[in-house]
Amino acid sequence: TRTPVTVTVTGAAGQIGYALLFRIASGHLLGADVPVRLRLLEIPQAVKAAEGTAMELDDCAFPLLSGIDIFDDAARAFEGTNVALLVGARPRTKGMERGDLLEANGGIFKPQGEAINAGAADDVRILVVGNPANTNALIAQQHAPDVPAGRFTAMTRLDHNRALAQLARKTGASVADIRKMTIWGNHSATQYPDLFHAEIAGRNAAETVNDQNWLENDFIPTVAKRGAAIIEARGASSAASAASAAIDHVHTWVNGTADGDWTSMAVVSDGSYGVPEGLISSFPVTTRDGEWEIVQGLEIDDFSRARIDASVAELSEEREAVRKLGLI
Ligand code: NDP
Known about the structure:
One of its GO terms (biological process) is malate metabolic process. About 45% of the residues lie in helices and about 20% in strands. By secondary structure, the protein is an alpha/beta fold. Strands 3-2-1-4-5-6 form a six-stranded parallel sheet, sandwiched between helices.
């Protein structure tokens, strides 16, 4: 039998955590033959709720689940962790300015970065889901100098999956026929879902759709504002789809992208496509043996350039704001 992989989940008692933990424990994160040990991090007032979820996990009798530990202390929660899913974050509440939001999240992601630096396993891989995810990932990464920067990623896979679903719906294609979808930039309303490099059954997606009005005024805003539409319809924010995308992100990272395809991940920029070095921005990436690589050489026309630049400018502003707050 294989040694269990240690997976730490923060915000474990939240909505996304509740949808995520059962899929991790049933083998969807790492594979049907990989046992997992869960370490759950919560704030003290939510520890009891996390214990309730742990009881339910016990009751599922998952053969791959080899243990669950619950902590309210980051240093202990990240001890020996191989995969860290940072879901817990401070949500924006009424009257809160962006600076307040960044500061509150700095108070969470700085100590978590330090704890990962001090105690995580050498092969640790980190996915930040909690918003503002890209900048929270940057804060954590900056406080983990001994961990290769490329191990810190933020989630745009839900946006990517939403884009696949919208394109499939518009064209009648199956999502399985769509390749090379890309989300560029920030996981926010400025994100840019790019159809100009996507393919449907081998044909260029933008050409297949051949409807610039739909692309500009329907597709892009629908993908970018899908979160708000879900809240409007469900009366609560998306949780199961976010959890599913987190599973996809890590599974693809660890197991690799298919030949002739890529995925979207927010990763540390090396300056590719004019994105300032060090920002954690979404790119088209291929993965192999647990390493990602930014897809190079794509032609970016003026339409795409303007949208990528706008989203990246927002990331630069967020980085400036957290610098001014002394968070990085
Ligand atoms: P959720 O589980 O619904 O969401 C958690 C985070 O994921 C939020 O920051 C949310 O951002 C973000 N998110 C990213 N993408 C999406 C998406 N597509 N749809 C919805 N959310 C998305 O929040 P809950 O309030 O239910 O739970 C949060 C838990 O985290 C609580 O149990 C709390 O106690 C815990 N927590 C733990 C901390 C820690 O471990 N140190 C620190 C802070 C909180 P958005 O703002 O957009 O909703």
